[in-house]
Amino acid sequence: MHVVYPVVVSALLFSIGVYGVLARRNAILVLMSVELMLNAVNLNLVAFDVWLGDRLHGGQVLTLFVIVIAAAEVGLGLAIVLAVFRTRRTVDVDRLRALAEVVRAPGSGRPDGEDAS
Amino acid sequence: MTSQAPGLWPPSGPEVVFLLLGAVAVGSALLVVTTRQLVHAALWLVVCFGALAGGYLVLTAEFVAWVQVLIYVGAVVVLLLFGIMLTRAPIGPSAGLDSGNRWAAALVAVATAAVLVTVVVTGFRSAYAPLRPGQGAAEPLGASVFRTWVLPFEALSVLLLAALIGAIVLSRTDIRGRE
């Protein structure tokens, strides 16, 4: 197996995940794109572990650890998304601007960063 | 490691299988980030993770492949579907899943892909990994997890416990913060 093949597949998956995180508005879809990026990293780890023939299996063990951390991350992320949905009635990340910097529109002195909940 | 490597083309049998699985994974990942239906995104994610598990099998990482099927396809996608349903997402196509900066995002993603693919192709063009079956079976992997990597393993169990408690505290409504 040439190392190029899995590594190129993983680079493509990672950039698709980058697109998803930047372009999606629904918070759950953003979480799915983060999972895609984590999977790209996992494929890289497995491919390089097979290439280097590590006797301690560092790559594959680290892949298992990343999978565990991804499970914990998605559990906590969904709990946060549900808490946000309970209080704001939306999971649209473009409209959750309570922590954003206050952008003052030129001319009017009104702060523009309020969340429309 | 790179001695007597066969040429990059034509690909051998396992490489053809891996390339097909990789095409399925990349295609379904594209559908995950472009589909207009939330539930379909989760289902395409199942296809993507399944194809990746097949890729791990081809790369002789059997145990990782089964863990991928169990945890990603079994647990993570079900959690995501729970999240979709608990946030009362509409079934069917919904407008406004993509934000206005979609073109900037596509530009960034294409630039990332170009840089990464160029770097890895120039860096690992001649790297060749001979596949030996049984390399990533449960026995050698378990031995190295519980011998060499036992301390990070225990740390991860503490992390999972903390994440569990955190998720419970965050999602229960009768626990209030101090006003």
TrEMBL record, chain A:
<comment type="similarity">
    <text>Belongs to the complex I subunit 4L family.</text>
</comment>
<dbReference type="GO" id="GO:0030964">
    <property type="term" value="C:NADH dehydrogenase complex"/>
</dbReference>
<keyword id="KW-1003">Cell membrane</keyword>
<keyword id="KW-0874">Quinone</keyword>
<keyword id="KW-0813">Transport</keyword>
<dbReference type="GO" id="GO:0050136">
    <property type="term" value="F:NADH dehydrogenase (quinone) (non-electrogenic) activity"/>
</dbReference>
<keyword id="KW-0520">NAD</keyword>
<keyword id="KW-1133">Transmembrane helix</keyword>
<dbReference type="GO" id="GO:0042773">
    <property type="term" value="P:ATP synthesis coupled electron transport"/>
</dbReference>
<dbReference type="Pfam" id="PF00420">
    <property type="entry name" value="Oxidored_q2"/>
</dbReference>
<feature type="transmembrane region" description="Helical">
    <location>
        <begin position="64"/>
        <end position="85"/>
    </location>
</feature>
<dbReference type="InterPro" id="IPR039428">
    <property type="entry name" value="NUOK/Mnh_C1-like"/>
</dbReference>
<dbReference type="InterPro" id="IPR001133">
    <property type="entry name" value="NADH_UbQ_OxRdtase_chain4L/K"/>
</dbReference>
<comment type="function">
    <text>NDH-1 shuttles electrons from NADH, via FMN and iron-sulfur (Fe-S) centers, to quinones in the respiratory chain. The immediate electron acceptor for the enzyme in this species is believed to be a menaquinone. Couples the redox reaction to proton translocation (for every two electrons transferred, four hydrogen ions are translocated across the cytoplasmic membrane), and thus conserves the redox energy in a proton gradient.</text>
</comment>
<protein>
    <recommendedName>
        <fullName>NADH-quinone oxidoreductase subunit K</fullName>
        <ecNumber>7.1.1.-</ecNumber>
    </recommendedName>
</protein>
<keyword id="KW-1278">Translocase</keyword>
<comment type="subunit">
    <text>NDH-1 is composed of 14 different subunits. Subunits NuoA, H, J, K, L, M, N constitute the membrane sector of the complex.</text>
</comment>
<feature type="transmembrane region" description="Helical">
    <location>
        <begin position="29"/>
        <end position="52"/>
    </location>
</feature>
<dbReference type="GO" id="GO:0048038">
    <property type="term" value="F:quinone binding"/>
</dbReference>
<feature type="transmembrane region" description="Helical">
    <location>
        <begin position="6"/>
        <end position="22"/>
    </location>
</feature>
<keyword id="KW-0472">Membrane</keyword>
<dbReference type="GO" id="GO:0005886">
    <property type="term" value="C:plasma membrane"/>
</dbReference>
UniProtKB/TrEMBL annotation, chain B:
<feature type="transmembrane region" description="Helical">
    <location>
        <begin position="41"/>
        <end position="59"/>
    </location>
</feature>
<keyword id="KW-1133">Transmembrane helix</keyword>
<comment type="function">
    <text>NDH-1 shuttles electrons from NADH, via FMN and iron-sulfur (Fe-S) centers, to quinones in the respiratory chain. Couples the redox reaction to proton translocation (for every two electrons transferred, four hydrogen ions are translocated across the cytoplasmic membrane), and thus conserves the redox energy in a proton gradient.</text>
</comment>
<keyword id="KW-0520">NAD</keyword>
<dbReference type="InterPro" id="IPR001457">
    <property type="entry name" value="NADH_UbQ/plastoQ_OxRdtase_su6"/>
</dbReference>
<dbReference type="InterPro" id="IPR042106">
    <property type="entry name" value="Nuo/plastoQ_OxRdtase_6_NuoJ"/>
</dbReference>
<comment type="similarity">
    <text>Belongs to the complex I subunit 6 family.</text>
</comment>
<feature type="transmembrane region" description="Helical">
    <location>
        <begin position="103"/>
        <end position="124"/>
    </location>
</feature>
<feature type="transmembrane region" description="Helical">
    <location>
        <begin position="149"/>
        <end position="170"/>
    </location>
</feature>
<dbReference type="GO" id="GO:0048038">
    <property type="term" value="F:quinone binding"/>
</dbReference>
<dbReference type="GO" id="GO:0005886">
    <property type="term" value="C:plasma membrane"/>
</dbReference>
<keyword id="KW-0472">Membrane</keyword>
<dbReference type="GO" id="GO:0008137">
    <property type="term" value="F:NADH dehydrogenase (ubiquinone) activity"/>
</dbReference>
<keyword id="KW-0812">Transmembrane</keyword>
<keyword id="KW-1003">Cell membrane</keyword>
<keyword id="KW-0874">Quinone</keyword>
<protein>
    <recommendedName>
        <fullName>NADH-quinone oxidoreductase subunit J</fullName>
        <ecNumber>7.1.1.-</ecNumber>
    </recommendedName>
</protein>
<feature type="transmembrane region" description="Helical">
    <location>
        <begin position="65"/>
        <end position="91"/>
    </location>
</feature>
<feature type="transmembrane region" description="Helical">
    <location>
        <begin position="16"/>
        <end position="34"/>
    </location>
</feature>
<dbReference type="Pfam" id="PF00499">
    <property type="entry name" value="Oxidored_q3"/>
</dbReference>
